[in-house]
Amino acid sequence: MSVETRQAARNLREYNRFIDELIGGCDYDFSDKKNCINTHIRYMLNRTQSMFKWSGLPDTIPQRNLELMIQSNGCVAFYKYNGELYAFTGGLGGEPNPYYMPTIFTISNPALKLTVNAKIDKDCIIVPNDAMYMGLLPLFAKYATALSENELSIMVALINSRIPALISSDNDGATKSAEKYIADIKDGKLGVIASQAFFDGIKTQPYGATANTNIITNLIESEQYLRATWFNDLGLNANYNMKRESINSGESQLNDDALLPLIDNMLECRKIAVEKINAMFETTISVDLASAWKDNEIELENAQQEAENSDNRKDDEGGENDEMPETSD
To answer: Are residues 140 and 268 both part of a single domain?
Structure first.
């Protein structure tokens, strides 16, 4: 083996060792529900960072931080401090206006050593995520919790599918041997029986493999349903097929109208706030849908336009058919 070949082999081993260390702690514990829920929420927040495209923002307001704060906290306040425009999280309060809306936004920012009770629409402008100032975390927590529970059930069902029979024992020795056997099965190992005493001290009950298969199928359908409805609530068309057969294009478009209201509301809240910000702080900020949400909006508009054109053609054809040709006597 040449020197170059040996050096290349060493480099490859070093690289593989580096990768092993990098991903060494990536075991996913489905029983750690809190971590599973938080992971689902973080990944969805990664996706929703691409929901809107902001233009004209000052350097003091990065879009990533702006959208993350709006979506997580429900609203932010645009406030100018030391001649620079910032977006802050804070608390809504003050004496309510005639429509019971807050009039004060309390800002406390340690980095800027800033604490102020800013008057809304006089000192600052509020940018709400939605009309109810809720943000996306309550919605995300609902689906993330349901998905984590469902995934844990799938994992348990998959492990149970390796067990041909349920085991009961009459003594401690057989129980320990049975527990070791189950642990090996869970780890994907072939279970080894240490002694004849194990067989003498246990009883088995055949396990319903067919029933377990049906459970897994139902859980997978639940997984698809939860993921699809989560995306649908966020304005993306992710169809789930519960019919276990093909669906036609008409059926796939049945939920298009349900995709729009929340996203339309979120965009409208941002646009109204941007108008106020530009008027108060003399900026040229704008905001619009982006990424898959913009593509979906264009597709829906095109589909609506095609439907209108089709209806117009039908009306024109119907009008022509109504005209009877003149006949001579």
So the answer is: yes
List phi, psi (to 5°) of 189: -95, 160
Q: How far apart are the first and last CA of the chain?
A: 107
Write out pLDDT tens, residues 230-283.
999 998 887 666 555 555 555 555 555 566 789 999 999 999 999 999 999 999
- The pTM of the full predicted model, rounded to 2 decimals, is 0.76
Q: What is the pLDDT of residues 78-131, one digit of tens each?
A: 999 999 999 999 999 999 999 999 999 999 999 999 999 999 999 999 999 999
Q: Are residues 124 and 239 in the same domain?
A: no
Specify if 66 maps to a domain.
Answer: yes
Residue 95's SS3 state is coil
**Which 8-state DSSP code applies to residue 210?**
H
In the chain, the amino acid numbered 258 is: A
DSSP 17-59: HHHHHHSTT----TT-HHHHHHHHHHHHHHHHTTSEEEES--T
What's the number of domains the chain is made of? Answer: 2
Q: Does residue 72 share a domain with residue 155?
A: no
For the chain, counts of helices (H) and of strands (E): 10, 10
Say if strands 165-169 and 286-289 run parallel, antiparallel, or are unpaired. unpaired
- Show the domain range for 233: 29-50+132-164+207-313
Report the distance separating Cα 104 and Cα 208, nearest Å. Answer: 63
